[in-house]
Protein 1
Amino acid sequence: DNLLRALLVAAILLLDRAGSLPLWLLFALVGAIGALTPATRVGLGVVVPRLVPDDARTSANAAIAGTEPLATIAGPVLAGLLLRAGGLGAAMAVDALSYLAMAAALAGLPSRFDADAPEPDAPKARLHELMTQPAVAAVTLLSALFFFSYGPTE
């Protein structure tokens, strides 16, 4: 999803520079960027247990959880500084480059995960089992709404 986000951010920048970015298209591109937020969160939930040994998993999850608020606070500050110093182009370019840097970092991960990690068994059956519980279904739907609403503001 990081490569796709980089492309979408770059598309916003390039279309804006060309004077071909109507408001509806901006909303569509930003919505697509936001829609990718759950992919990152799900990816973390799949990758961390397979890359981090059991005894270090709590620390790894804590480190991940600690970076989210930091990014939420520091990101807008950095964007404001970039906007002030270099304008919209600089801020959008750094944003696109940050997604490319993340994609490059992820490309360096092992292609084969821990063979001892439990394999997901019948994901559709597990999803059906979860979604038939009203509380789980409600929280899942509210979370999806939150991510789709909040994601574009990241």
Protein 2
Amino acid sequence: SKTEANYGVSLMDAQACAGSILEMPGGCAINEAQRGGILLLNEPDDSVRDALTVLLQGEQWRVVNAEDCAEMAAVMNSGDVVAVISESSLPNCTPEDILDRCKEYGVPVIFTGHDLPLQGAVDLIRQGAVDFLDKPFPQSRLLDLLEGLQSRKDG
């Protein structure tokens, strides 16, 4: 599939990552120290996507990449998505589509971007986004947001 070619993990492997499998052939290794649930990453830029994936996996998060709303919906149907990190200007998916899908599943969303005016970012937060991170953003800001979401989920 296109997802497998672009990300090295098929949608089937991504959904299986939500289970208790110890190692996936597509590169999704799960170990005892990993956090529960999946972070769903919607990022069209290869270098940003790769950097965020490495950062998040280094923090023991399981990361699944989705190219569009259809792939996002398929992964969210697994029920194990704990948060969505999404570029605000995806080619085939509006921020409103992403927010609506996340609200359906009760999943928080953090938007990123570099071409949205301040009022647009405020509007996304008012509509239910956890935050908007203007690129380039400090890695610690994203990690702090995720830590807060994990604490709320665990507590």
Protein 3
Amino acid sequence: VKTPSQLLDLYVSSVGRNAGLLLNVPPNRTGLLSDGDVASLKAFGAMRSAWFAENAAASAFVRHGPGEVVLTLTKTARFDTVVIREEIERGQVIEAFTIETDDGSGWKPLAQGKTIGAKRIARVNYVIAARVRIRMQSALGRPSLADVGLYLEHA
């Protein structure tokens, strides 16, 4: 039986990297899921829901520029997770990206990665920022983001 924390890590390393989530939770000899598995899955669901309940970027002003998206937050936000979704209907085109923050003293790199796809979840060091920039350094076509979310896992 995987713990809720292990399931959350599995979620980030699969769904958060543009893949599906395979839980491998088999039924027991009676054809039902074991009580321990059910309890762990419920706790995982509650942890995931709590983590992604409040998006600090929900009301941000968004500016699209050549190869970048800049979010200006309505108020300074605390976060340790950035979720990016590419407009997958147009195809997966982003090959490399960088996440940067600005706390009023200039842009600072926070994280970088290769592809984004349907969803990329980047766990980052805890940060307080007023602006966030996603720079797409390499793309196979015209990059387009569907969504950017900023969340606090460890409140």
